[in-house]
Task: structure prediction
Amino acid sequence: MKILIKNGRVINPADGLDKVMDILTEGDRVKEVSENINAEADRVIDAKGLWIMPGFIDLHVHLREPGFEYKETIATGSRAAAAGGYTTICCMPNTKPVTDCVEIVKYIKEKAQKEAVVNVLPVGAITRGQEGTELADIEGMAEAGICAVSEDGKSVMNAELLKEAMLIAKRLNIPVLSHCEDKTLVKGGCMNEGKHCENLGLNGISNDSEDVIVGRDIILAQSTGARLHLCHMSTKGSIQLLKEAHLRGVKVTGEITPHHFTLSDEAVDGKDTNTKMNPPLRSKDDVEAMRKAFKDGIAEVIATDHAPHSEEEKNKDYKSAPFGIVGSETAFALSNSVLVEEGYLSPLALAEKMSLNPARILGIEKGDISAGNIADIAIVDPERVYKIDSSKFFSKGKNTPFDSYEVKGSVEYTIAGGKIVFEKGKINDN
Ligand SMILES: [Zn+2]
Ligand SMILES: [Zn+2]
Result:
């Protein structure tokens, strides 16, 4: 299969290219990137006015399979990802059973091979059953193909155990993805601590519950030499600690989700549980710190923490509903609307945060659409203005606070390994 993409603005941070060009793919590779390509092709895509970017890579999704298929499956989650311009997604291990052994890693990989429309890379748990008491078979899982380890959903509270895991991860050259939350400081909180929380009479989650673990994990990354990646940073304090760690040369990177750089805790009314996630929506000051962290080059990655739940689960009262919202199908629109349109990121820097940097963190040969590389491509319309409609999501989860939210920027085509997997609102499964 040959695809010729004509007259799009090619935005490729790996070689700094940002120019109107044509791209020709052949098989699973990019064959040529240049002006006025005249070649026979099976498909010609007119990309005038559109951006052609390396396919997005999401370091943080929850596909819920095995165990919670009523929330999401590898099949549906990968389709949601394709609709969001993602060509590679990393799925977190808080499944049932937990992804803590070779068998489950193999199960996910085989399922993905058969049913997914984009690349699915499993993340292995750090401890058995994510119980925090005994290390999982990290070595075995690495051999079976995990891309990273993480205890996401919680922190490994035992520092000695985490340190041991970091030494193993370092030896295996895989990153440690850290959900930073000191559970002793959370105390049943369900939203950000502060005046909105007090007004609603709900229990608050303080910034220091995140900052304390960010600090600890950076110290352990420094002493072990492991590569640490901070998941869903949400506080000013996390950004400050990341900045200081960079200055000391610690191998640490950080991600921010679209919801944490878009909404503050003002959006929480105590009823709409689609504003309940972990970490919670923070103060306006924190939101501004997230945006600035991109502008200042401190935060390296935009990741979604795509966390689908059923309607029934989210229909509970605010205290009892589960944490988490879906994100795959709204990430580009929100990132473009907030970060690019408001001047925090250039289109080139956006492509870096959504694709090149995640590829580098994983150590995979992706995130670059120069000639010879894998043809993983997202073609987006940066000008299209519309309202998000969760009923059209490919994800089983419709749990988003952004339903009816006006955004600018849509994903028009997603090409994975030289194959068009998403095209103008439709998934191509053939
Ligand atoms: Zn998490
Ligand atoms: Zn998560």
The CA atoms of residues 84 and 329 lie 4 Å apart. The chain has a mean pLDDT of 98. The pocket of zinc ion (ligand 2) is lined by residues 60, 62, 92, 152, 305, 307 (CB under 6 Å). The longest helix spans residues 207-224.
